[in-house]
Amino acid sequence: MSAPHSRAHAEALGIGAMCGAATWFIDLTVLPRHGEVVQFREAFIRYLGELMSLVEQLTSLHGPDDGHAHAALASVAEARRRLAEPEAAGLNGEVTRVKQLARSVVALSEHHEALTALRADVCPGCDRAIEAGVRPTP
User: What pLDDT does residue 96 have?
Assistant: First the structure.
């Protein structure tokens, strides 16, 4: 597999699918069963660990004054804060907590997409710079 911050790796992680699941969970109006909440919580926790690492790697490729990178790192810090929160008491409390984790999944997915788009001069398959006027080969 290519470098961990490549588009190919991000697609392998299923950013779109996980972001969709997180959005669906955020929009719930009826309380899910406890077992479902636990499954979503565990999936979001696992995914946030991988996504935080990807976003941090992408931000390291940008200059120290890059606004997108600063915003992304702030979202990583917020995700870490949310991950450190203990399990909430009762189903309502835990659903609220897992919705916060889902919000971090959505935010970091959007930051990943934005930071990847900013690197349009880099081949998504191998992460090598694409020279101006040169067509990349697959």
Answer: 96
